[in-house]
Amino acid sequence: MFSSFHKSHAEQETLPPLKAGSAPQNFAEMWSGFDPRVEPLEVETIKEWEEDDVVLRIVRFRIGVFKGQKAKLAAVYGFPNSIVESGKKIPGLLQIHGGGQYADYKACLLNAKRGYATLSIAWAGRISAPDYRVDPNVVKLFWEGKTNDPAYKLTTDWGAVDGYHAPGRNQGNLFPSAMPAAWTLDEVESPRNSGWFLCALAARRALTFLEQQPEVDPQRLGVYGHSMGGKLTVMTSVDSRVKAAAPSCGGISDRDNKSALFRLTLGDDVSLKEISCPIIFLSPANDFHGRIGDLPDTVDEIASRDWRVTCSPHHNHQDTAEFEVASLLWFDQHLKGSMGFPQTPKTVLKLDSTDGVPTFTVHPDSSKPILSVDIFYTQQGKADEHPEDRERTMHRFWHHARATKIKGGWTAKLPLHSTEKPLWVYANVVYPLEAPVTGAGYYYGTYTTKSFNLSSLLQTVSVKELQSARIQATMKPSLLIESFQDDWEKEWFTYKPHEWARTTHKVYDETWKAPPNTTLALEVLAEEANKLVVMLDGFAAEVQLHGGDQWQTVVLAPDHFQEYAGISLPNWENIKRLKLSPAERLRPKRGDPRAPRLVGKHWRGPKPQFRNLRWQSTIQDR
Hints:
There is one protein chain. By secondary structure, the protein is of the alpha+beta class. The strands form 7 sheets. Strands 1-2-3-6-4-8-9-10-11 form a 9-stranded mixed sheet, sandwiched between helices. Strands 14, 15, 18, 19 and 20 form a 5-stranded antiparallel sheet that branches. Helix content is 16%, strand content 30%.
């Protein structure tokens, strides 16, 4: 029994009963009868403190009344202290965390320093703040009403329903499900039973909290979130009070649930069609949750014509600063008027070339200085990707095509290795910032960047179109995987640019697929003795480097690579990811309580140099 539950039988239910026992069948019916402003908020401040001239609070307020019990939403709220005496009003931001994340004070703190009031909502009950951390174990203490436990803390209380996630309060609760259960609102399959709907409803109540704060201008509200928070951002941005939105890694792909009712009400496309505010999609090119292949449809579906996209090549569900900062800059433009966002780059894809090689031309907005224009393309896309395509989605390789500036445009050829696979291509344009911008990233790490990226919309060409245009397969297989010259890092990636470790998916591409009877070889120059770790998926090879001024040749066979339990890589087949690193932690399989195992160690001296990463034949010529 929850000690925090409050019976509210005398109060009207937040949502009307089903009509004739029939569940809502569309967007309008799903939200019918809900007014996010009508109920009192009943705000309670649990904790308040100041940090760096920012007022920060842990708050709870009423979501609504469901099955006779009140539900309350916990959150972290922050705003600049200087705004209190000035009497001015500032924009308000609603930040929605992802599935494994917390409501976090760092987003509120750093946004306040840039002149925003921010509410970070704990829809799953988890909170991260100084001296107020609610992890999943503390959430369970709250459920169980163990008020005498020293770790007990107040947090989100869903009352008679269950909008929690990772874990859900009720055993067997599948967060997205619309099916009926003892903890759901409706006794039939209904979108109002789904955690998606409950949390979107709570987020719309959070907008009401923001617009009622004395320091917030209710006409300037923005919403952003990552992963599950990206989908919830899309579901919340249907509210007319939202004046700008920035979903990250979510909200553009959830279209293939097996339930027809779910797809008609809770599918991403259903909410996207209702969004009229300016919106920017942060969509890493290899993200499994917000798939880049769905972006063209997404842009067609939204009612808003004011949109942008930023798509990092090779990344999956994470980003680096010049991509993450897009959210803040978008709010600067639409809630402050202090940023002039460039227009989306215009692109032209030509298939009618005399040499059978497609060309791609980019015409970026030149109203601001341009630092770089890069073109990325792949043949590992699929016309209709689903969750079961996760492995290909996360690991597809994006070729970098060097663009040449000609008459205001940047043009590059796109040599293909096959005409039996589709072509996907897009461009990235990097612009400088007038001053560095600091913010809290997807996972609340602090970043500072002096530039930002803007992408063109993905263009796709089907196999039929390639063949009809008489495109030729001109890219041949290569034993040389990487020369480490010129723009080689464009085809590698990292989430920690300040460190030298780099990863690539080149070995997953047909061009560099390992032939039979080969070893993996490369040459390394390291000034000091160190250990180099070469990773292939979850398998690691640890190499002792001698140090000095001579290049050292490293040759590795599959059995040099071992996973956590010491099992060797059987062969080169179906490898997807290669990483060069000073140290890695090999982790046991999920559910295994053993600690991770470290291979390699801290790097000493200047970063290493590499050359000639290649497949090398083990068969001697006669």
